[in-house]
Amino acid sequence: MLHHHHQQQLQRPRRRCEGTAMGAIVLDLRPGNGIGPFSLGMPICEAFTQIEQQPNIYDVVHVKHFDEEPLKLDIVVSFPDHGFHLRFDPWSQRLRLIEIFDVKRLQMRYATSLIGGPSNLATFVAIYALFGPTFPGICDKDRGVYTLFYPGLSFAFPIPPQYTDCCHDREAELPLEFPDGTTPVTCRVSIYDGSADKKVGVGSLMHKASAPPLLPGNLYMEEVHVKLGEELYFSIGGQHIPFGASTQDVWTELGHPCGIHQKQVDQMVIHSASDPRPRKTVCGDYFYNYFARGLDILFDGKTHRIKKFVLHTNYPGHADFNSYIKCNFVIQGSDLDNSKQSITPSTKWDQVKEILGDCGRAAIQTQGSTNNPFGSTFVYGYQNIAFEVMKNDYFATVTLFQS
Questions:
Q1: Left if phi > 0, otherwise alpha if psi is -120 to 50, otherwise beta: which for 393?
Q2: What is the C-alpha to C-alpha distance for residues 208 and 201, in angstroms, rounded to an integer?
Q3: Rounded distance between C-alpha atoms, residue 47 and residue 37, angstroms
Q4: Torsion of CA 398, 77, 54, 218, to 10 degrees
Q5: What is the DSSP letter of 386?
Q6: pLDDT above 90 covers what percent of the chain?
Q7: 3-state secondary structure at position 339
Q8: Is the CB of residue 140 less than 8 Å from the CB of residue 202?
Q9: Which of 151, 242, 243, 327 would staple 231 via disulfide (CB 3.0–4.6 Å)?
Q10: Contact assessment for residue 187 and residue 146, using Cβ atoms and an 8 Å cutoff
Q11: Is pTM beyond 0.85 here?
């Protein structure tokens, strides 16, 4: 499946200090909870914040996602030097599963003991001694893998093909050593939310891991209801923000913005023969950025009242990926009174056209520069709403205005 993935490599200049060579970092293992700075349930942008704070440790990071169907497969953030990766649910963009796939490269600390890394082989005996007895594991003969389960933690051991009969049935004891005198060494460690009492391992068992439930009142992925041409309504906080609201209204309802910036107007047309470069002029209008809510609000520079809202879906493969948390919007308007006809971040462009009708040609928008690695996006406008559509037919942003 990997050739379908779009792989972004966040490569930084090599700044390896002594001691961060492969396998030399030590991360705390927290069964059912996380490893090192990464906790199950964390949104993907929080994980990137942790990565950026320790660039000399996480200096090679691969981000993999399925470009054509971004909601089908996990977004995977992988650390090849350290032998582990993080799997984020593609819809909620929260961490659901941590897998250590090369135990020799990652030294883990549990309680006061070290396991894994080049010197502490994670053998069946060592794991049993550290984590205590457990129920017999599950044997997957087809994969030749035996998996041992603890709450929120599992260990997979490869079984040499000649010894798969050592595991007679699905639930079996693994021998401490195989007949040839070798001892089983774990090939994969999985850390997942153990509260649902699921067994999560390799293969089909991997899909059982889901991010822990959010605590009541948590605003992450709060539903934002859009009434076209009228207002936004925040379902958990209960705020109503209409077009024409003042900056003070917005401060009161949403708190202070994460950023404020002037809107720039590209005047591609106005350039003199002596200076062929397009000029950027500032038009007085300005944005409030609420990155943690996935939205921007545009104010009129003269009246200081809301002119537009921009909602972000935060799909990987767009230039803004990871700048905003995904906005979980539900768009309903005068034409969308039928409840089945709402538009959300999971709606594809074809479905929008079915709901709103065809709107004619797109205005092409390249993100800042023509050599943008993510390719250009297309903007389609309707009354009160415009969609910025990516090549895979999902939209990156939705702009709301009053026409």
A1: left
A2: 9
A3: 8
A4: 50
A5: E
A6: 41
A7: helix
A8: yes
A9: 242
A10: no
A11: no
Task: Please report which confidence band the pLDDT of residue 38 belongs to, taking 50, 70 and 90 as the band edges.
Answer: very high
| DSSP per-residue letters across 157-193 | EE--GGGGGGS-SSEEPPPSS-TTS---B-SEEEEE-
DSSP-based three-state secondary structure for 131: helix
Note the pLDDT of residue 343: 92
Instruction: Please tell me what DSSP assigns to residue 33.
Output: T
Nearest Cα residue to 198 out of 130, 97, 100, 115: 97
CA distances in angstroms from 173 to 135, 157, 168, 176, 388, listed in the order given: 9, 12, 9, 9, 55
Q: Are 258 and 292 in contact (CB under 8 A)?
A: yes
- At 11 the pLDDT is 44
Sequence-separated (6 or more) residues with CB below 8 Å from residue 324: 45, 291, 294, 295, 312, 314
What pLDDT sits at residue 255? Answer: 92
Distance between CA atoms of residues 132 and 256, nearest Å: 50
Residue 119, Cβ density class (10 Å: 0-12 exposed, 13-18 middle, ≥19 buried): exposed
Considering the chain, what percentage of its residues have pLDDT values greater than 70? 79
DSSP states along 48-112:
HHHHHH-TTTS-EEEEEEESS-TTTS-EEEEEGGGTEEEEE-TTT-BEEEEEES-TTT-EEEETT
Cα gap 98→229, rounded to integer Å: 43
- Backbone φ/ψ region at 322: left (φ over 0), alpha (ψ -120 to 50), beta: left
